[in-house]
Amino acid sequence: MPWQSVAFSGLDVPMKLSRLQSDFAEVHTLAGAPRKAKMYCSQGVEDSTTAYFSPEAVTLAQLLLKLHGAVDCVAPNIGNLNLLVANSGGQRSNL
């Protein structure tokens, strides 16, 4: 599975991103918080941002990502992204 991304733009970016983060966090938790399934977001401006999902996250949340219009993308430089949902030391964290 490749990485996938969901791009957001417009005045309601924070609301849309928060909803996707919350929905993914729920799926992540219900699946036992797999360590490699992670959600990131770009450090964009207020009216645009992109959410990124690791290949393991894509496998875990295929339907959710499809509903949000996710597309395949190249692996991003995660050093330039904010980690939003991940398993940190055996516990899921919604950062």
Structural write-up:
- With 95 residues, this protein is an alpha+beta fold.
- It has one domain (3-94).
- Helices cover 32% and strands 34% of the residues.
- Strands 4-1-3-2-5-6 form a 6-stranded antiparallel sheet.
- It is globular, with a radius of gyration of 12 Å.
Outline:
With 95 residues, the protein is of the alpha+beta class.
Question: Which strand order does the major sheet show?
Answer: 4-1-3-2-5-6
Strand content: 25-35%
How many domains, in number, for the residues?
1
The backbone outline, from C-alpha atoms, is globular
Intertermini distance:
24 Å
Q: Please report the total strand number as a whole number.
A: 6
Percentage of residues in helical conformation: 25-40%
- Rg from Cα: 12 Å
Judged by helices, strands and strand pairing, the structural class is: alpha+beta
Tell me about the biggest sheet? 6 strands, antiparallel
Instruction: Work out the helix count.
Output: 3
Uncertain runs? none
SSE order, as H and E? EHEEHHEEE
Mean pLDDT: 89
